[in-house]
Design a protein that fits this description.
The complex is a heterotrimer. Chain A has two domains: about 1-90, Up-down Bundle (Four Helix Bundle (Hemerythrin (Met), subunit A)); about 130-185, no CATH class. In chain A, about 65% of the residues lie in helices and about 0% in strands. Chain A has helices at about 5-30, 30-50, 55-80, 95-110, 115, 130-140, 150-170. By secondary structure, chain B is mostly helical. Chain B has 20 helices and two strands. In chain B, helix 14 (about 320-350) packs antiparallel against helix 17 and helix 16 runs antiparallel to helix 18 (about 405-430). The longest helix of chain B has about 30 residues, at about 155-185. The two termini of chain B are about 20 Å apart. In chain C, helix 4 crosses helix 17 (about 320-340), helix 9 runs antiparallel to helix 10 (about 175-205) and helix 10 runs antiparallel to helix 13 (about 235-250). Chain C is globular and about 65 Å long. Chain C has 18 helices and no strands. Chain C has helices spanning about 1-10, 10-15, 20-35, 35-80, 95-105, 115-120, 125-135, 150-160, 160-170, 175-205, 210-215, 225-230, 235-250, 260-265, 275-300, 310-320, 320-340, 350-375. Chain C folds into two domains: about 20-105, no CATH class; about 110-375, no CATH class. Classes of the chains: A mainly alpha, B mainly alpha, C mainly alpha. At the A-B interface, helix 7 of A face helix 4, helix 5, helix 6 and helix 9 of B.
Chain lengths: ~180, ~475, ~375
């Protein structure tokens, strides 16, 4: 049995259990800051999974965007909100029986697909390993296999989000603050 | 290449509208952004009307960005929706133009709207799942921002928060679905997915993916189990935004669904119909039952549009070009009728609260406005001479063609029920005694011109076959 | 003779230098002594990993204590003092003595602080710094791991250090700590963008993301270092990088997060003993890392200072690469210290304005100009 498990498999099981543990802790923790820390754990292990798949760029992007950006932003939001981190939150789900039933039903439904998915005769496609240069070239490729449209539309999307954030955050009632964003 | 002009122009227009505010001296009353946006949008609409793309899917040389008949006609729809919403928003930027107060930052407002339209363009032309997803996002995120444009109004902020929280969850679910399909197929292009689905119609990943995507699009479409956001957001957002939301967001979800069901997933269309039937029935029933109890005009329109989404879904039961052209035609009808209704509501909202009681005595005070309101209501309910009837008839015909007669029956029954609450509005306008304390209504020239264009549309689109013929001609091209 | 020498120092020879001499020995040892391939693999990779971690930890500790001594010396000299002189020659052992004192000090925890986060926080910045050390090429064959996306890795992982500061400041349950942490977080996030753009500029110019390859892209004379290779704007980019990394390090003159006159000690006000020294350690390793990154990206890394004259170059090549690397790194570190003791501290809003209204547009403009230079072939 041992010989059939590669070191990759071992890492996969360890990382996915950490992800599941982190995810459960995120939703069940009563302190928002603890939730955020568990979220970091969860996201970091996901980055580890990407490295196992030889997708280093995605892993780095995961760490950079989610851990370095999103969670830091979350922490700032929690700090700026009065005592949100200290208050012990009520669990969101009141009707545990109903929700549990639905969850178990959904899980059973998904589980019913397992036999056909692990069927060895199923034709499987594997994504090829790509270096960062290839990823970059593919993004800017004008041919049919390229992704220049989504790439450029994402930049428009980010522009829109920034315009929107400034339009909402700017205080336009007080003429004194008209051209100053308070830090 | 020249089929790409509308897409390029709309992006340039959006940036231009932002820039014009920077170049011009800081003047709150400046009309330049407004003039520029509506003139620009109108000329883009003219370009789109005159364009006839070559038959088949025409790739323009930017990845899988596809121009075909359906994308052209959908772009026209999005442009018109944006154009009328911007024309509607004019009075919101002038003092006293609205009871809820004056909105600020009109160049940002209009630029965001045009950017949102560009996102819709991307959805219509998407040739792979990544473009589709990014396009859906670009057509949703500006709406989150726009619905909070009344910063001092608690209900506007509440609407934005509710919309953004639920919208993000629905986006996440949809993305999860896309990733399932990518996991099964290994490619994101629609052609590869089509081949895969033809060979493996029972693949579980495709099904899990489709169900998750359907839930996500159902949220944007306002289908019944995912409709909870609609009444609050319609109520809280500024009226121009609600108008754009009710027409644009819905059309974009319909476009995405159409791209998937008649594109990559067409091999399993027969099986997906079961899900669509459940959603359609639920939406029609919940929308109609909910609308009966409403006293606020915009909440009422929210429930009405949930029911309308149900009718649109009935059209998806049909197959091929006929079903697609019927859906697109109905979207046009819906756009004209809904925008016209919101135009009337915005005029009422200038001086009064937007509730049923404000409509009292409208027939005495502004007979033309009351007549137009009646036309719109009859059109939404599907009464014969108006566009709504023709649209619904073709929609149900496409379902009946595939043998779903009982669905047609359910649809017709629901239309009859809906007539009750649409008549309630007409009753308020025509029969109930006018309220003496209400401030008088006032229409300016811009509103008069727009209302006459929209009113003509509501009547003529259904009567003159040229509109439907053009739609089906363009759909048959692709 | 000279020709052979040159061939030895050619780009190919440098690139093909034995990459993992120690690792290969260990791998060979285990694969010869174990029958089971799987177990041999596990043992050899784990002992390699352990070895790397040990070396890097020792290196980090040594560097940090040396830098603390250096900082005190430089500061003293700038203020016409002597600095530490008593412990060891030139006071070199002073920081070790301080370290021993700190380890034996009591760890105090304020009332109402969240114990888990309070004790977790000090280790996060140090972890982030250790992670970055793993990809830095000290010489042509001294590098823990050469990953394909090295430059992005540096940007991503150095952002990780913010957590320790934010969480530590919050968990201390003190208003000075929280204010300091918020300032530090805002400042680091803002200036991280400038640092990242500075690094991406070099990634764009060299077309490489692995740090080792970036160093090799500067092979040749001194003119080929990116600071000079991009005419004028290379120097501007280097200066922008220096300013923004000073701010990202929370060092003076940008040490707003721990401004003594306003916030007592900022985010680590409530920390003492070993927990405090972990923050301190991370700060100094980060300074070393900033210097090392600057060296790798702009100053040719471990490549020697050559001017194209054969005899001179041969002499320069005799000096080992790591010596060049440390010389350049300590030059940048000296600049950081120089800044700290000669400039006054700005206000927090001035600091933010500097980033968002000057540094960011300047960096973006620089990237655009560099792109134009690259397309037009105006690189030296």
């Amino acid at each position: 049995m041992l010989s059939s498990i590669t070191i990759q498999d071992l890492f996969f099981f360890v990382l996915s259990s950490v992800i599941i543990f982190g995810a459960i802790m995120v939703v069940s923790s009563k302190n928002l800051i603890h939730s955020a820390i568990n979220l970091i754990l969860c996201l970091f292990s996901t980055a580890g999974l990407f490295i196992l798949l030889n997708a280093e760029f995605v892993a780095i992007a995961q760490v950079m965007v989610y851990i370095g950006g999103v969670v830091v932003f979350m922490l700032f939001t929690i700090f700026l909100t009065t005592r949100l981190g200290e208050e012990h939150l009520e669990p969101l789900f009141k009707n545990k029986f109903f929700n549990g039933t639905i969850l178990v039903m959904a899980a059973c439904w998904v589980a019913s697909f397992i036999p056909s998915v692990i069927d060895p005769e199923r034709d499987q496609t594997f994504a090829q390993n790509a270096s960062l240069t290839e990823v970059g070239a593919r993004f800017l490729d004008l041919r049919e296999s390229g992704f220049i449209v989504p790439f450029e539309v994402i930049s428009v999307l980010i522009l829109v989000a920034m315009i929107g954030a400034i339009a909402i955050a700017k205080n336009d009632n007080d003429p004194k603050n008209k051209d100053e964003v308070s830090n | 290449m020249n089929f790409l002009y509308p897409d390029m122009l709309i992006l340039i227009l959006a940036i231009g509208v932002l820039a014009v505010d920077l170049i011009l001296p800081q003047d709150e009353e400046s009309n330049a952004p407004f003039l520029m946006s509506w003139l620009g949008l109108a000329s883009i609409a003219v370009i789109l009307i005159t364009q006839t793309p070559p038959p088949g899917d025409y790739m323009v040389g930017f990845g899988t960005y596809t121009i075909n008949g359906i994308s052209t006609i959908m772009k026209l729809l999005f442009t018109l929706a944006c154009l009328f919403s911007i024309l509607l928003s004019k009075s919101y930027f002038t003092a006293g133009g609205n009871l809820r107060g004056k909105m600020n930052r009109h160049s940002e407002f209009m630029a965001l709207m045009i950017f949102c339209t560009f996102g819709m363009y991307t959805v219509a032309s998407a040739g792979d799942m990544i473009s589709l997803f990014v396009g859906i996002e670009l057509s949703t995120i500006p709406l989150y921002i726009l619905s909070s444009f009344y910063k001092d109004d608690r209900s506007s902020t509440e609407a934005a928060i509710k919309y953004i929280v639920m919208g993000s969850v629905s986006t996440a679910i949809g993305l999860f679905g896309f990733s399932f399909i990518y996991g099964a197929v290994g490619y994101v292009g629609f052609e590869d997915i089509t081949n895969f689905v033809v060979n493996n119609p029972r693949d579980p990943f495709i099904w899990i993916g489709f169900i998750l995507i359907l839930s996500s699009l159902g949220f944007k479409l306002g289908l019944a189990p995912f409709h909870m956001w609609a009444p609050d957001v319609y109520q809280g957002a500024p009226t121009p935004v609600t108008t754009f939301l009710s027409v644009g967001s819905k059309s974009v979800a319909v476009t995405a669904l159409m791209l998937l069901i008649y594109g990559p997933l067409s091999a399993i269309h027969q099986e997906t119909n079961t899900l669509l039937i459940v959603l359609a029935c639920l939406s029609m029933v919940i929308g109609n039952l909910g609308a009966m109890r409403q006293k606020e005009l915009r909440r009422f329109m929210a429930y009405s549009s949930i029911a309308q989404a149900g009718y649109i879904l009935v059209g998806f039961l049909g197959k091929g070009e006929f079903a697609q052209s019927s859906i697109i035609f109905y979207l046009f009808v819906f756009m004209f009728t809904n925008v016209c209704t919101f135009f009337i509501f915005s005029i009422i909202g200038q001086k009064r609260t937007e509730s049923f009681s404000s409509l009292r005595g409208l027939s005495k005070e502004k007979p033309m406005l009351a007549a137009l309101l009646m036309m719109c209501m009859f059109s939404l309910a599907g009464i014969p001479p108006f566009a709504g009837f023709t649209g619904k008839f073709i929609l149900f015909a496409s379902a009946a063609k595939e043998g779903y007669y009982w669905m047609v029956l359910v649809g017709a029954l629901n239309s009859t029920v809906s007539l009750y609450y649409y008549l309630l509005i007409i009753k308020e306008a025509y029969i109930n005694k006018p309220d003496e304390n209400q401030p008088p209504l006032h229409l300016n020239t811009l509103q008069k011109i727009n209302l006459s264009i929209l009113g003509t549309g509501v009547v003529l689109i259904g009567l003159i076959p040229i509109f439907y013929n053009r739609v089906s001609e363009l759909v048959n091209l692709s | 003779m000279a020709k052979e020498e040159l061939a030895k120092n050619s780009l190919e020879a440098l690139k093909n230098a034995d990459q993992h001499p120690v690792g290969d020995v260990i791998r060979k040892y285990f694969s010869e002594n174990f029958e089971n391939e799987f177990i041999a693999h596990v043992f050899s990779s784990s002992s390699n990993i352990l070895l790397s971690i040990l070396v890097m930890t020792a290196f980090a500790g040594g560097t940090a204590s040396f830098l603390i001594w250096l900082e005190r010396k430089v500061c003293a000299r700038m203020q016409v003092r002597l600095g530490p002189t008593r412990v060891g020659p030139f006071g070199l052992l002073q920081s070790i003595a301080d370290g021993i004192k700190l380890v034996f000090k009591e760890m105090l925890r304020p009332k109402g602080a969240d114990p888990f986060i309070f004790y977790l926080a000090p280790f996060l910045p140090a972890t982030a710094s250790f992670l970055v050390l793993a990809v830095i090429p000290f010489d042509k064959n001294i590098q823990v791991v050469d990953i394909d996306v090295g430059a992005l890795y540096v940007i991503a992982v150095s952002g990780f250090g913010i957590f320790g500061i934010l969480l530590g400041g919050w968990a201390s349950n003190s208003k000075y700590s929280l204010l300091g942490a918020m300032r530090a977080g805002a400042q680091m996030i803002s200036y991280e963008i400038s640092v990242g753009l500075g690094l991406l500029l070099i990634v764009m110019l060299s077309g490489e993301t692995s740090l080792r390859e970036i160093v090799f892209s500067q092979y040749g004379t001194v003119n080929n270092w990116w600071i000079f290779k991009l005419p004028i704007f290379g120097i501007i980019a280097f200066i922008l990088f220096l300013i923004s990394s000073t701010a990202e390090l929370n060092r003076g003159p940008f040490d707003l997060p721990e401004a003594e006159s306003e916030l007592s000690a900022g985010f680590h006000t409530e920390y003492s003993g070993i927990t405090f020294s972990m923050f301190f350690l991370a700060e100094f390793i980060n300074m070393f890392i900033a210097g090392a990154i600057g060296t790798t990206f702009f100053l040719g890394g471990f490549l020697p200072f050559t001017i194209g004259i054969e005899g001179f170059d041969n002499i320069m090549f005799m000096i080992p690469g790591w010596a060049w690397f440390f010389a350049k790194t300590y030059f940048i570190i000296f600049l950081f210290m120089w800044f700290r003791w000669s400039f006054p501290r700005p206000r927090i809003d001035q600091l933010m304005n500097l980033e968002w209204k000057f540094m960011l547009p300047a960096n973006l403009l620089n990237i655009i100009i560099a792109g134009a230079f690259l397309t037009l072939g105006w690189l030296l």
